[in-house]
Amino acid sequence: QLHYSVPEDREPGFSVGDLAKDLGVEVRSLAARNLRLVSEGGQRHFQVDLAAGVLLLDSRLDREALCGQSPTCSLHLQLVMENPLQLHRVEVDVLDVNDNAPQFPKPEVVLEITEVANPGTRLPLEVAEDPDMGSNSISTYELSPSKHFALSINVRGDGVKMPEIVLEKALDREKVPVHHLTLTALDGGNPVKSGTARVTIHVLDANDNPPVCDPPISKVLLEENVPVGTLVTKLNVTDLDEGPNGDVEYSFKTSNNAPGKFTKLFSLDARTGEIRTKAPLDYEESSAYEIAVRARDKGSPAMEGHCHLRVELIDINDNSPEILLTSVSSPVQEDAAPGTVIALIGVKDSDSGDNGQVRLQIAKELPFKLVSSFKEHFSLVTSAPLDREKASGYNITVRAVDSGSPQRATQKTFYLRIADVNDNAPNFSSPFDTAHVQENSLPGTSVFSVSASDPDEGSNAKLSYSILDNGMQDVPISTYFRIDQDNGTIYTVRALDYEQDKVFQVPVEVKDAGSPALSSTAVVHVFVLDENDNAPNIVYPSVPKGSAFHQAIPALAEPGYLVTKIVAVDADSGHNAWLSYQLQESAEALPFQVERRSGEIRLAQALRESEDSHRLVVEVRDNGTPSLSASVVIVISPEENSVQDFSKSLDLPQSSPEETNLTLYLIISLVSISLVSCVMFGLAAAR
């Protein structure tokens, strides 16, 4: 039987022993004798190198896996050789190597000890395990430094070392509730290997501490109008005890006789100590609240502490200013002097600080301004002259703005009426007007309507019209015209005669009903239009009515001889005074003719010797509508010794050329005026 040993940490191919040498055979004969290796365990860990005659390691060995905690570890092999057949037994000892570190069953060990435990109290620990054997197994234990705990090692009967933690100094859980230690197990190998476990020691509480509020008196700033349920604060209460001894319940501390108002506004979570709002907070109602809280633990006997909290509200700009119109003087006279008080205005803002500082504003374009009377009271006064005719009233918007952030504003509008003062005289649309009226119109005929306006109102704008007698006519103008005092229509009082008065100047006065009354005047030029109410008047020859005018002419007068000339005038004017002359038709043909425009009677043909006198009826007719006429009878007698001397035969003085051609001038004037009028109308139409 051969015996070898091999360390467990050798690599495959390691030479375990020289078989040829130990068996006393030559190396070259091993192959011929068919040397082979048979393992008894069924696992093949070795092989034979026939060329070298040595036993080699076929795979790496693990003593702990092969033999466990057995003090010795051996593997048994059989060598078989033939020719002759021989059987050899080989025993290989697997030597232990320190290839395993100590290991605790749990990486962390949790222990408990009461804080009132006496020094010397022992806390047993679990034993570490090391698969290695002998000196490579666990040699000792070490504990991390601690003021309160130390390590004690006891040895059992089987030699196993048992670690224990011993209390050396009294504990105080409120100072150190948990102690963290490290336990180290060391083996005896070379080099030394170790394993560690965390040791957590919980100090069990005893109810020896009351709840403590930190800080005992605190202050919280909170904006008003925060939403209901807003967290005000969470009380910082500590109880150094634990468990029921440190489990704190919270409650409001109130008096039965006078429960605190804060209990209606705040809620307290009995478990967490959170104080929240349960109703809206209003700074204007109360700016601060004092809250007392009782903190009580569940120990036996129970201990309690007290917290005092002051909640101060921060004012936010949650109230708009209020505008109070104390007094308004409406209407106000338009002649009110600047500085006249119109209204008294008060403002109020329930907020405080800048949020309650209010400024009043009105539009700059208004003729008013605000004057501060005293705190929160203002006067609205006029700052400029008022004119009702420009503005009969004002919508005054007073705007109140506070100084908060964001600003809040309120506005109020009221209407101020401006009362009228008689400060405007009536005013005619034109100071001079022109009117036309036919002569002979019936009395009461409407001539013209004057119109005046007064920007005042009421009685100050009630107008009455009258005609002034300015003495410009010989006869008072009121004998010709009258005026309706209400509407300003001018009527005739009597029939007018163009031939007597061609134009009238009618001064009209308009007066309002104000006090004092104001007035103004205008002049209406009334032109009388001519009517054909005058028949032509034959001036020459002048004969009594029913008589004839006798005119002698030379018997031998030649054609064209001027027999006489009819002179007539017409009191009318224009076309009505445009005269024409003609002979009335007779039964016999007359050797005379009348010049139509001039009225000259001339011989048309020579007289026969046997002819006697001729009777001519000359008619003078105007151009009016209807046309009026006059006639004269002229008896013309031929005489042998008669000589033409027309100028001497007239009873009137010798007429000048201008008088002779009066009718012609009238015709030329009328035509010229008509032509100019046509040209002017044409230019106006072209424009």
From TrEMBL:
InterPro entries: Cadherin-like_dom (IPR002126), Cadherin-like_sf (IPR015919), Cadherin_CS (IPR020894), Cadherin_N (IPR013164), Protocadherin/Cadherin-CA (IPR050174)
Record's bilayer topology term: Single-pass type I membrane protein
GO cellular component, one term: plasma membrane
One GO term of the biological process aspect: homophilic cell adhesion via plasma membrane adhesion molecules
Main location, first listed in the record: membrane
Record's keyword annotation contains Signal: yes
Localization of this protein: Cell membrane
Residue ranges of the TM segments: 662-686
PROSITE patterns the record matches: CADHERIN_1, CADHERIN_2
Protein name: Protocadherin gamma-C3
Name of the coding gene: Pcdhgc5_1
